[in-house]
Amino acid sequence: MTIDLALVWAALIAFAVLAYVVLDGFDLGVGMLFPFMRGDEEKSLAMNTVAPVWDGNETWLVLGGGGLFAVFPLAYAVIMPALYVPIIVMLLALVLRGVAFEFRWRTQRGRWVWNLSFCAGSLLATLAQGVALGALVQGIAVENRAYAGGHWDWLSGFSLLTGVALVCGYSLLGATWLLMKTEGAVRERARRLAWLSGALTLLLIGVVSLLTPLLNPQYLARWFSLPGALFSIWVPALMLVAVLVFVQGMRRGRDAWPFGAALSVFVLSFVGLCISLFPYMVPPALTLWETAGPDDSLWFLLAGALVLLPLILAYTGYAYWVFRGKIDPQGGYH
Predict the structure, then answer these.
(1) Angle CA(310)–CA(316)–CA(317) in degrees, nearest 5?
(2) 181 with 54: CB under 8 angstroms?
């Protein structure tokens, strides 16, 4: 039996990207919600909910980006020039957020500067990720296996829309995370923010979903002809189930349900995105197989990934298990 290494690696990188989105998404969301927290005590409590895990969450970004460079070098060489600006903004914003996270605890007089930096870094990183995603979905100009577009092709109405949608989506993840991890005033504030961000997220997902098939006839054909038409039925159906779980969890006080539902919405949206883009690594010009490296390299890298991935998953799972439950402002987790 022949193994399609390009397809295997595309699945692994897609998994790494999804893991980054759902894991780092909620702590970026917490950062964007910082201005809604009242006083240093509430801000510190919100930050403490992500302190044990936020750094590890970004491991998946390194894995996804490094995997793209190593396994699909042609895709990396085309995508990076097309998205230099949003990618650089994202990386600088993540650095700013990381610095603010550490420096905030070291000062009293200038704490407001690092509070602002933590929020601004989270917002800019999220917006840049969303814009880059929108630019990729709308298509990258390729000629002779090289980027053939301009410096500002990434900036469009659609890419800005996806940027705003991701800001709302990460805010939803952040609000439901705080709802699940805190008590008292912070929990109640997070509950109200979850309702608002949830409604905006669903609205923007609907708008983006309607506009995406109009960007490229291939997207439209993939969703409304077999076998893609089957997915166009069950993906919205499962999305409706996630919405119902979210609403019931909010109404019944089941604090973990809304976070699980928000994660499900992201997973289903990501599945829909993969259905639209497959089999292109650089839509609409270059496929997975055209951009993949030689098989010997893919086998070598796969051997390393089969060792590394279980270790990362085990560490991540253990970290979340140790710091499970609500956080006590005085005594830590309980």
Answers:
(1) 85
(2) no
**292 CB-side CA count, 13 A:** 21
With 0-12 CB in 10 A as exposed, 13-18 as middle and 19+ as buried, what is 91?
middle
Q: Which of 121, 124, 149, 117 is nearest to 135 (CA)?
A: 149
Query: Residue 227: what pLDDT?
Result: 65
Helix, strand, or coil (residue 154): coil
The answer, as to whether pTM is greater than 0.85, is: yes
Q: What angle do CA 200, 206, 211 make, to 5 degrees?
A: 125
Cα–Cα distance, 57 to 34 (Å, whole number): 19
For the chain, the average pLDDT equals 87
Q: What is the mean pLDDT of each run of 10 residues along the chain (334 residues)?
A: 84 90 90 88 85 80 84 90 92 90 79 88 94 91 86 91 95 94 88 94 91 81 69 82 93 90 93 85 87 88 89 88 78 49
pLDDT digit string, tens, across residues 301-315: 899 888 988 998 998
Residue-wise DSSP of 65-80 = HHHHHHH-HHHHHHHH
Query: Which residue ranges form the domains of the chain, and what is each CATH number?
Result: 8-325 (1.20.1630)
Q: What is the C-alpha separation between 295 and 297, in angstroms, rounded?
A: 5
